[in-house]
Amino acid sequence: MKFSIERAALLKAVSQAQSVVERRNTIPILANVLIEADGSDVQFRATDLDIEVVDKAPAQVERAGATTVSAVTLHEIVRKLPDGALVTLTDDAATGRLTVEAGRSNFSLATLPREDFPVMASSEYTTNFGAPASVLRRLFDKSKFAISTEETRYYLNGVYMHLADSEDGRALRCVATDGHRLARIDAPLPDGAEGMPGVIVPRKTVGELRKLLDDDDMQIAVSVSETKVRFATPNITLTSKVIDGTFPDYSRVIPTGNTRKLEVDAADFAKAVDRVATVSSERSRAVKLQLDEDRLILSVNAPDSGAAEEELAVAYADERLEIGFNAKYLLEIASQVDRENAVFLFNSSGDPTLMREGTDTSAIYVVMPMRV
Amino acid sequence: MPALCRDCLSEFETGTRCPTCRSPRVVSHDELWSLSIAHMDCDAFYASVEKRDNPELADKPVIIGGGRRGVVSTACYVARIRGVRSAMPMFQALKLCPDAVVIRPRMQAYVEASRQIRQMMDELTPVVEPLSLDEAFLDLTGTARLHGHPPAVMLARLVRRMRSELGLTGSIGLSHNKFLAKIASDLDKPHGFAVIGQTETQAFLRPKPVRMIWGVGGATQEALDRAGIRTFQDLLRWDKADLTARFGGMGDRLWHLARGQDKRRVSAHEPMKSISNETTFFEDTGDPDILDGHLWRMCEKVADRAKAKQLAGRVVTLKLKRGNHSQITRRQSLGDATQLADRIYRVARNLFDQVGDQGPYRLIGAGISDLVAEGIADRTGDLLDPNAGRRGQAERAADKIRNKFGPDAIIKGRSLR
User: Fold this and answer.
1) pTM value surpassing 0.80
2) Which of A362, B96, B236, B405 has fewest C-beta within 10 Å?
3) Sign of torsion, CA A315 A320 A323 A327?
4) Which PANTHER family match (chain A) (predicted)?
5) In sequence order, which residues have a C-beta less than 8 Å from that of residue B135 and are 6 or more positions away?
6) CATH of the domain spanning B274-416
7) Is residue B385 marked as binding?
8) What's the CATH code of the domain at A314?
9) Which residues of chain A neighbour B379 with C-beta distances below 8 Å?
């Protein structure tokens, strides 16, 4: 195998590959990226056995072939090469080395045989549809903060992507929760998505997927089966197993009878929460919200370190209410709001609170209060 | 050289026998009057309490431990001569010493004896740091004027009093820091008094193996072995930077210890780091119902202790030991700390289910760590478990009933399994 490729194209492909590779793994071949050169393309393939990413880049292929080499080392080398360099990769079957040449730099890397590289079994996808990158980006970006890290509740360690009936009709919906907060984001149902099985997309996959979604106009091909999900652009294909578990019935969790309505500028609110929380060094900092006739007082009282209070002008017309929250949770949901005011709907100080943006019900958040 | 008679407490200049009472139990050292950091370690504490309470046992080998299947928790000196050691499996101990009298631990008696010793120590100095029921560090710096005698005399008086009033003996290590005091108390056991002064510290340590260091367990030992460090002499050859690079925070500590330096203060209020309970079964079991019952009881005990100490934990740990003694531990961090048996149990139970091993097991244990004050625990409800709040309230109510009418006034059916 021998090919030459532009440094920028190589870096992009290799960096995606090395981020899939697990840093701590016991199977040597999984630390490697499989490089396959054929025709006018080179494919870079990396896997951790749960996720597989294949990145295709145009190159001048002199001799077709394939080999595997450490993804992290290759990435480091390419990253340090000067911008605009032309990189030539040559595989020497006799010595089992891969030579990387650019200008006057020359590297020789150990390889492992391509036959040893595990290729993810292809799956029968039951649903295939296309969705703009911007739509998927919104679905996952706004829900991923609520993914649980508790491994004992493994079925919460991802985003539940499924179909649902929303107020605006059929929707592609993403839900994530860790038991303390929940995010439910809807998008209009893309053509061809009807009948899609609900799947839990693992946290790591959500992170890798994000790298495919930077270009607003890019159309992403989505394929779903009961056990796998695939997201593809013309150059990158990300395939992932889904979490084998049942996502809990979240609809029971979303309060419907909350009537006490608070409307507040989300940015002002987030800044105020952040400011008052400064005085407490606890990891789970509690912020108390005192609501009264168009007035909100945020306060933190940490006996060991100090106290803080801030008042905000808000729209609130219901009876007096005192309720506490984890500062981090409040900040996270407030930062999801990007266009309008944040609307909070409370019931009592012990019941879940609902938050949405203006009157928009396509993105709603639920957060559990904290005893203060 | 200053000398002290450990029997009549006379202070004199030199000699191997006390000029007053002719006792040979004399301790002498150049720095005897100036050293003030001590470690007191009771001799075969549990066994000594048993022998005191039952004089018939005096010359018999006595082993304290949990039944036929447990491990030796303490062996008296008679049993130790036969090779019995603490932490040895009971069957092995009985092989070495078939005529041993095995006694189940009577914790209440030990706690009581420990409390009495603690009281005596508190009379010497406010700075007492207990390490367990039967050992403690004491810092007697600056007490000489108050007592009218240097620390060494007061320590000798302490062990003399323990022996006459409680019928228990202890060994004293006296030095200039905790690390050396702890080593010293072990040099002259039982009923000993050993001193390590500033001047001989280096010479004393040099040929000693590094595993003497308290806190150097199997893993550190192996890492040290790989680096070719076996004795303090080896350790002295290393630069501070190299040691830190290789062993992290431990490296810095090793560098100082190699030079006999230990900056840790004797602290009377060492915060608790974890709360845990475990039980060894009478017979290995893989029965999920039996295991579940044990798990619940362990979690309940942990919760009881946490509540008594007004603490809560952010991490729940499950510990299992298989029939072949291999150990499994699993831990889970919580977003919201807890002291409730119900929450500890549910997390531990989830961890247990994920182990996915049928056993059989010989031991199960549960614990909490990363402790915080109870005020910031159990504050956030669980969206997906709306009944958790009510179960928590039920547990608090049951606690009140148990406080009023006794620990068995109300129990969960689960704990009967």
Assistant:
1) no
2) B405
3) positive
4) BETA SLIDING CLAMP, DNA POLYMERASE III SUBUNIT BETA
5) B39, B40, B41, B42, B185
6) 3.30.1490.100
7) no
8) 3.10.150.10
9) 284, 286, 324, 370-372
